[in-house]
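Researcher: Here's the sequence for the chain we discussed earlier.
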Amino acid sequence: MDRLAKSVKIDVIAFMTKASLQNGAPAPAITQAWIGLMRAQQRVLAAIEKDFKSASLPPLGWYDVLWELVKADGGRLRPFEIEARTLLAQYNLSRLIDRLEREGLVCRETFDADGRGRWIVVTKEGRAMRERMWQTYARSIERHIGGKLSEAEARELAALLSRLY
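Model: Thanks. This is the structure I predict for it:
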C-alpha cells in the first residue's frame, strides 16, 4: 500500500507539473514558494508591529518614511519620492505625512516659486523618533529572522529574494 501511495503521489505531481506547463500556470513548487513568501511576510510584519505596539511606538510605516527622509540629502524628499522608496500607496502616504506633521516629526517646505511644490522634511524630533523605533525594530528583526536563520541561510535567502526585484 505504501508503494502504491508513493506511486500515486509521484503521478499526481507529474500530472500537476505537466498540466501547469500546458496551461501557463506556475509549477507547484513556484506556487508553494509564493505562498511561503506571502505567509512569512505577513507573519513577520505582524510580529514586528506587535513589538512596536508593546513598546508604545507608532507603526512600522512611520519608521519607513522617517528612515527614507533621514537617508535623503538634506533630510527631505518630495512626496512622490517617498512613495517610490516605500511600499505605501499615495493615498495612505498623504494621510501618514499629515499625522507625522501633526506629531512634529516632519514639516512641509515650499520649493516652487508658485508655492505648489513641497518638500517633506524630517525634523529633529523625527530623527529622534526613528532612532527610538530602530532600537525595537533591530531587536525584532533579530528575534523574528535572525533567531530562525543562520547568517549563511540569511545571505542565501537575501540572494534568492534579490532575484525577484
